[in-house]
Write a structure and sequence with these properties.
Length: 186
């Protein structure tokens, strides 16, 4: 398996670029985001750009600094705006061979996209997987119950079963397991 294939398994966008922010590689998640153009896009010259000119300048400064850096600490985090009012979080890191890698944390949750994998990996029912996904996306139990159109008692019962099946006993432990576990890798 090559590096590109491995990058395509990740739930977040991965973009490798040169010091001028020209894209050299983008995994499938990043390609979809770039094609959509909502928050992050390509200029006519193939360079990364944000939605707003100030975001583009900040992004290109981070990429240039990371690409020319010898220290692992170079780079940084940035959020670019989207038309919906949400933001798209970016993390820029240097590459040893020169250039930079931009990790894109799409707010279209990788947890939601991985719901079937979560269900299969942990042996959850469809209803339990929907509740677990809502919790992992940051909803409280009450908010999740409302969004899923179930009663609080039903949500509590599902959560009890989820805890048993995942070997967790707190919502924070469940969320950590779901976000860092193997089920979110495609």
């Amino acid at each position: 398996m090559g590096v590109e294939e491995l990058a395509d398994l990740l739930p977040q966008g991965v973009i490798v670029c040169d010091a001028r922010a020209r894209v050299l590689f983008a995994n499938r998640v990043a390609q979809a985001l770039l094609e959509d153009g909502d928050g992050l896009a390509l200029s006519n010259g193939g360079e990364l750009r944000g939605r707003m000119p100030g975001e583009t300048a900040a992004l290109r400064r981070l990429v240039a600094a990371a690409a020319g850096a010898l220290e692992v600490e170079a780079g940084g985090a940035l959020r670019v705006s989207r038309e919906s009012g949400e933001t798209l979080p970016l993390l820029v890191c240097p590459l040893r061979a020169g250039g930079a890698v931009v990790f894109v944390g799409d707010q279209a949750s990788p947890i939601r996209r991985a719901q079937l994998s979560i269900r299969r990996w942990y042996g959850l029912t469809a209803a339990e997987a929907r509740l677990a996904s809502a919790l992992a996306e940051g909803a409280s139990l009450e908010q999740a119950a409302l969004a899923l159109e179930i009663t609080r008692n039903t949500a509590r019962t599902h959560l009890k079963h989820i805890f048993e099946k995942t070997g967790t006993n707190r919502q924070s432990a469940l969320v950590r397991l779901l976000l860092a576990g193997p089920a979110i890798v495609r």
